[in-house]
Amino acid sequence: MPKHNETDNENIPMLNDGPSELPLRSFTPDQMVRCESCLRANPPTRVNCLYCAAALPVQSANIVLQKPALRPLEKWEQGYNNILLPPAANLTESCLAEAADFLRLETDELQRIVASNMPLPLARSSSKEEAELIQRHLRTAELTSLIVADASLGVDPPIKLRALEFHDQGLRAYQSPQAQPQEISWDDFVLIVSGRITRKRVELQEETKRSENRVLAADQFFADESVIEIFVKNRTTPYRIASGSFDFSCLAERKRLVAAENLSILIEVFRERVPGIVYDQSYNAVRKTLEPVWRSEQQNESTGWRRDRPGKYSLGSATETSNESQFSRYSRLRFYLLTQQQLTDIDA
Hints:
The protein is 24% helix and 30% strand. It is of the alpha+beta class. Strands 6, 10, 11, 12, 13, 14 and 15 form a seven-stranded mixed β-sheet that branches. Strands 4-3-5 form a three-stranded antiparallel β-sheet. Strands 7-8-9 form a three-stranded antiparallel β-sheet, with no helix packed on it. Strand 11 (213-232) and strand 12 form a beta hairpin. The radius of gyration is 25 Å and the shape is globular.
């Protein structure tokens, strides 16, 4: 049996979860970039080291060769977002196709983002170096982008409210009947973002055989709920009110029988009490446009083995898809941009 040295492992291409860099290209030793952390050679197309993920030194001769990996990030990872700043230039078809290829998007997906004429994400990368590379490349196509870190948008989950009590100076917000209410002044409210959160769950029961799996039963569950997130000054974590789990008794005689109607009335109350509050209801219109970059989360799980009859067993599995994280990221982006605009106005 032939022997292999440990260094032979370095010649085996590593697999990752991100898109592959196609087509494959070969580079001369002079073109390879040495990582300053692990001292290994990397292709000049990379921004971060293939082995240790450290940022690679920037060489002017290789800038035109670099491409972002743009791998899908894990749920726990914090990334960097390139946000398109409108108005966008009138791109030719060839320029649009080139930019889409660089961003790992379909041409029609990038076209929808540009045509929206709104600040929407073009890419979400794992490192600031990749985001800066994307920003430089887009600048040559006359597309201006703003780099926004996930950390700047806020990482804490929203504060879910169950009930409110109004008074002249503000309101009392209840997270549960047992918890002490939070006092919030009317002057502190700055933004309301509305949308819909959908959850789809598919459950399968399969009989496992040597050649194939046979589906014995399949069930599908779907939930759709109207929500709003309310932002206050100097705080990135919003308050969330979901139509299906909120007590609308605070509306008194204006309360209706349908929860979605009550949520609309509640928004009216906020706009009456806080005339300067910004109401953003754009999410539902741009949700499909967000999907290529900020995808809905999908979670797979096993529901275990089940004995159907003697000697016959089946395995259950479930797949759940939700746009909750997408909506949350979008609402926080709206708050971040609003805050930045207010700071610019103050400076001016």
